[in-house]
Amino acid sequence: MMKVVDLQQLRSFAAVARHKSFTRASAELHIGQPAVSQHVRRLEMELGVQLLSRTTRTVQTTEAGAVLLQRTERALRELQAGLEELLELRGLLQGHLRIGAMQWLQPYDLPATLAGFHRLHPGIDIRVVEEAAKSMMEDVLAGVLDVAFVPLEAGMPEGLSSQLLFEDELVLIVSPSHRLARASQVHISELSDESFVFLREGSGLRRLLDSAAKAAGFQPHVSFETNELSRVLALVAEGLGVSAVSLTFAESAPGALIPVPLRPTLRRRVALVWRDRSHHSPAANAFLAYVRNGNSRTREDRQRSGELRTSGQQAAARSALTQREQPLTQRGQPLTQRGQPPTQRPGGPPTAQSTDEGLGD
């Protein structure tokens, strides 16, 4: 007799297996971790097999779990697509959109793109995840993500279509005390003895730099590796190694970092990717149409159109705000001359020293 299992049990199992964590699965499903654990235990009892191998540190699928996971995720995707198509037939475009995004997309303005899309389709819930480029492309192929913003690379998996969004130059970043801080440019081969601070393996930037170093005849020595771009910048600023970022990003980075042009020039090409020749949910189709029709732009595009302030306008606005926030004693003619102590009244508390200007009678 065929076992009847609960849909929520399958959702919980799939989330735990995908994240390899009960905690992250609980966060995705918006239910308590004890409930997720209970769903998985009941599913295993119903089926009479162990689906997950649990240790104190990790959760892995068993052979039976791997078989069920593949079928379950496919069934859940089809069910979600069917529900969204029914809503679309009623003229109510709703659903869920799962987007992968690399950590630094500058100059592309992803928040503005999402805001514009949300105004057109407020019924679509959007989830954005940040992972290494390789992982996100695999998730797009597997249907875990609908689309992803990733660097275009040679060797991109078959089965993906893409639309180029922008390209920019990569520059070396070093601390002010580094030997290359005053260099007008540096050839990649000159970095063979340097220590590098990198994002983890699988990131588009890491793969691009590894490929350039290999072409120059050396393997980069990675002294620090992290998942956070902000931490890469902080470690480089401390003089613990060198790294590379886009020129656009380097121009907005803290002053403790010095950008140095690389030779030969390395260029990063960033694109939106999606599954080729595959069924997409109405929400995914709507987002693809929105981006491909030219509704997504870089920050420079928005500044030129007047939607965003330029850096000069932002500086002027900050200056005006600072002026408004200054206390009265710091605007125009001060009530107390700077560098002079307040006068002391006999038997009373200190008072501000009066001047002839700005106080009236």
Concise overview:
The chain is α/β, with parallel strands linked by helices.
Present the secondary structure layout:
Layout: H1 7-19, H2 22-29, H3 33-47, E1 52-54, E2 59-61, H4 63-89, E3 95-101, H5 110-120, E4 124-129, H6 133-142, E5 147-151, E6 160-174, E7 186-187, E8 195-199, H7 204-215, E9 221-226, H8 229-237, E10 243-246, H9 247-251, E11 258-275, H10 282-295, H11 299-304, H12 311-325, E12 343-344, E13 350-351
Parallel strand pairs: 3-4, 3-5, 7-11, 8-9
Antiparallel strand pairs: 1-2, 5-11, 6-10, 6-11, 12-13
Helix pairs in contact: 1-2, 1-3, 1-4, 2-3
- Strand fraction equals 15-25%
Helix content: 40-55%
Q: What structural class should be given to the helix and strand makeup?
A: alpha/beta
Shape: globular
Tell how many strands the DSSP assignment holds.
13
pLDDT < 50 stretches:
307-311, 317-361
Number of helices: 12
What string, H for helix and E for strand, traces the elements in order? HHHEEHEHEHEEEEHEHEHEHHHEE
Rg on CA atoms, Å? 28 Å
Average pLDDT works out at 79
Distance between the termini: 100 Å
What does this structure look like?
The structure is a single chain. The protein is α/β, with parallel strands linked by helices. Helices cover 40% and strands 22% of the residues. The strands form four sheets. Strands 3, 4, 5, 6, 7, 10 and 11 form a seven-stranded mixed beta sheet that branches. Mean pLDDT is 79; it is low at 307-311 and 317-361.
